[in-house]
Amino acid sequence: MTDSITPLDDIAFSFQDRLAQVLAEGRQRSRGGSPQYGQLWESLTRMATGGKLIRPRLLMDAHRSLGGGDQAAAVDAACAMQLLHIALVIHDDVIDNDTVRRGEANISGEFASDAMRRSAGRREAQAWGNATALLGGDLMLTLAHSLLARLDVDDAKRRAILDIFDDTVFQSAAGEHSDVWLSLHLEEARSQEVLEMAGQKTAVYSFQAPLLIAAVLAGANTALAEELAAIAVQIGVVYQLRDDVLGLFGDEQVTGKSNFSDLREGKETLLIAFARSDPSWADVQHLFGDRMLSTADGHRLRKVVEESGALVFVESIISERCEGLYRFIRESTLPPALRHQLIELTSECNRRTA
Amino acid sequence: MTDSITPLDDIAFSFQDRLAQVLAEGRQRSRGGSPQYGQLWESLTRMATGGKLIRPRLLMDAHRSLGGGDQAAAVDAACAMQLLHIALVIHDDVIDNDTVRRGEANISGEFASDAMRRSAGRREAQAWGNATALLGGDLMLTLAHSLLARLDVDDAKRRAILDIFDDTVFQSAAGEHSDVWLSLHLEEARSQEVLEMAGQKTAVYSFQAPLLIAAVLAGANTALAEELAAIAVQIGVVYQLRDDVLGLFGDEQVTGKSNFSDLREGKETLLIAFARSDPSWADVQHLFGDRMLSTADGHRLRKVVEESGALVFVESIISERCEGLYRFIRESTLPPALRHQLIELTSECNRRTA
From the record, what ranges are coiled-coil (chains A, B) (predicted)? Predict the structure, then answer.
């Protein structure tokens, strides 16, 4: 029985190198199996090593700013954050039945197309794509757990990090579950609920977990960890509100998704919660959540949202939240370098176009 | 931040008590969230604590027979085996689009029915059921990892156990992936491939992992671990071949599933691989994998399988494998009590009716 994961000896490794290494080990082990399983590991590698790597970067930067010296452990924890992100994104796509992400075929889409090229029926091919993605998510989740379980730090720190990670999976699943539930529209969603759901689904794993794990690794005190947790939740809200605005009013070429897909899904956002209170909503309500929504009706629905004042309202909330955050971060006890990073991060979450 | 999982202090705890405890902690934490998330944890608890608990029992028994003295660690590892089983079963049902297991609604079925009672459309309700099950599987997989990452044993043992567990998830996913691929029928399945897939999908996690983890905990030597691994794979083959026979010729009242569901799925088994070589297969081939297969055609297809001699052939293979296993176990260097247990287990896997 060989080690599943080679321990990290060279502390000069960047997290990108380490990520590439643990994924290469997975690909290597998959070579004994079917060509399809090997292909899955290739796709997982492409997904996990691409993108902006926001979460692992945040963990690495925060760890350094907090004066942490355990570079090897920070690298492995940063990789675990990225792998968890990929696992959640993949499973989110399965849940939403999406075959495209950021303008390219995702795992479901890629494997379904391959099967159809080999003359499988559409329905069977889609099932195959979804099955492959579901298993791919399980593999990425397992790899994230594996890295953290093997962290070479003292017992108390490892347990504290495992607690944060488990809690993160628990919250992310709860947030995703609420998201799907709200999109069924069996009960009316209140704005507060929509914001909480978004925080649970995205902010906890994207911002809170990387910051809290960095704090544990750097040996930061409890007060500081609590400040970081509060900031993380607020950054998450800004991130999510911007996401909702981009989903409806973004540049499709940049976001890589249709401006009508959230409307077709019936996604409950603060924009929609606001628009619902406008009298003109009654005329278009039946279009919201219609999976067959035409482009003309999409424009009509979006116009009602915009003219209800929802866009102006949500933009004002975003500005308010950002201002509050900048103040909170400036007045915090965090080290100056970290305050600077978090202000930058907030600003990026606000200004992003994709 | 409180501990996600209370450490196990009382070593007199049975694994059933411990399983109930870690699941109760999950339910407790879910109370702050949506009623639906709480309901998911209730369903997960019912699933995880029910059934025959074959895997945790095997681990506990093997650990004792091998003279292992670390009862607390064995209990936690046994729970992890059961939780992994539940995670895999849940995700397998999502992949197969099943809503019933052993005659009762599974998580997808339960949540879909609830949503339909609350007047959701069938399609939306099914998507909700599948999303809930997918997340439930993620939660069970995470809980299994959590228990093992916190095992209070020396570092070398914990790492050895983590390696076994990670390898188990890797193999199970590979087996499941092959299973779905073979059921697409884009290439002809060879008997050897079908048997290997079944071993990977079921035997590794059901028999090999519990036995190998028990061996590590009990400090068994490598030669003994290798004997156990070889025996586990063989037991797995017997288990799977019996499964295939029951799937087609079992008592539906006892198995809790239709004798035609494997045929409708187009499940590649040794029975089918044998029947394919019979001239009469050509007449019924078009029925195999037909999701709309009628009862009359189901009987017709099953008759061809039986009359091809496939049933007699597979039964003879099962007998042969059992005899070989009994001999191998008797001649092994395992302690007598463990030899006895493994002979019993083999016999149960062969004689079972569900």
Answer: none
Two tokens, residue A115:
């099967």
Do A220 and A106 have their domain in common? no
- Tell me if residue A309 falls in helix, strand or coil: coil
- Do both A130 and A186 map to the same domain? no
For chain B, say whether A331 makes contact (Cβ under 8 Å): no
Residue that is last in its domain, among B119, B152, B185: B152
Interchain CB contact of A48 with B (< 8 Å):
no
CB contact under 8 A, A128 and B166: no
Inside any domain, residue A1: no
Residue B3 domain-assigned (yes or no): no
Same domain, B337 and B223: yes
* Residues of chain A numbered 159-178 and touching chain B (CB < 8 Å): 159-160, 162-164, 166-167, 169-170, 173-174, 176-178
The reply to whether A64 falls in a domain is no
Q: Cβ of A103: how many Cβ atoms within 10 Å?
A: 12
One-letter amino acid of A122:
R
Whole-number Cα distances in Å, B11 to B24, B71, B121: 19, 6, 50
B chain contacts of residue A139, beta-carbon cutoff 8 Å: 169-170, 173
Contact status of B118 with chain A (Cβ, < 8 Å):
yes
For residues B242 and B283, membership in a common domain is answered with yes
Same domain, B81 and B175: no
- For residues B42 and A138, what is the distance between their CA atoms, to the nearest angstrom? 22
- CATH code where residue A346 lies: 1.10.600.10
- Write the residue in B143, B162, B173 that is nearest to A149 by C-beta: B162
Over its C-alpha atoms, chain B yields an Rg (Å, rounded) of 21
Interface test with B, best of A2, A8, A22, A37 (most B CBs within 10 A): A37
Same domain for B249 and B333, yes or no, is yes
**A117 and A186 within one domain:** no
**Which positions in chain B touch A226 (Cβ < 8 Å)?**
none
Assess B294–A contact: CB distance below 8 Å, yes or no.
no
Chain A residue numbers with beta carbons less than 8 Å from the beta carbon of B94 are 134
Each residue's pLDDT, cut to its tens digit, for chain B (354 residues) gives: 444 566 554 445 799 999 999 999 999 999 988 999 999 999 999 999 998 899 999 999 999 999 999 999 999 999 999 999 999 999 999 999 989 888 889 999 999 999 999 999 999 999 999 999 999 999 999 999 999 999 999 999 999 999 999 999 999 999 999 999 988 988 877 778 888 887 888 899 999 999 999 999 999 999 999 999 999 989 998 998 999 999 999 999 888 888 998 899 888 888 998 999 999 999 999 999 898 999 999 999 999 999 999 999 999 999 999 999 999 999 999 999 999 999 999 999 999 988
Determine the structural domain holding residue A141 and report its residue range: 6-50+71-152
Cβ-nearest to A184 among B124, B134, B173: B124
Count of the separate structural domains present in chain B:
2
- Rounded to 5°, the CA angle A152-A156-A160 comes to 95
DSSP string, A29-73: HHTTS-HHHHHHHHHHHHHHHSS--HHHHHHHHHHHHTT---HHH
Q: Is B91 on the interface with A (CB under 8 A)?
A: yes
Q: Does A90 lie in the same domain as A169?
A: no
A33 interaction partners in chain B (CB closer than 8 Å): 174, 178
Q: What is the ipTM of this complex?
A: 0.92
Cβ distance A163 to B91 less than 8 Å, yes or no, reads no
Q: What is the DSSP string of A130-198?
A: HHHHHHHHHHHHHHHHHHHHT--S-HHHHHHHHHHHHHHHHHHHHHHHHHHHHTTTSSPPPHHHHHHHH
User: Which of A129, A152, A175 finishes a domain?
Assistant: A152
